[in-house]
Design brief:
The chain is of the alpha+beta class. The protein is 41% helix and 32% strand. It has helices at 2-26, 100-127, and strands at 28-40, 50-58, 64-68, 82-88, 91-97.
Amino acid sequence: MSLLAGLALLGFGTREAVVQHRLQREGIRVRGLVVRHHYVEGSGVDGGPVYFAVVEFVDAQGSRHTFQAGSSGVKGFPVGGGVPVRYLPEAPNRARIDLRRRRIGEVAARLAGGSLFTAVGIWLLATGR
């Protein structure tokens, strides 16, 4: 199970890296607005709540779009605060907050977790456990 989970996480991390790279190359940068925080109870490391910023932006055609940030944390994203957003013209639903630490963090966390689970899975297979 650990090996499968690790490979899945590595796949998600790789997919996110491709999306982030494409957004940097072809994406349109706009200003978004944090409209609320989505609360998920009991999902934190300590079993506490986790909050995700919900961001609204207007694309180049004047259409409004809303998306939830892929990683948690609201310290830097108060409701009513502006955030840089990048989206692909043909897929505004794949928009991301355009901050370097967020881009790197979202990819790195998935790849690190995937590597760890994969390594544990391989070790378990190799030792026959």
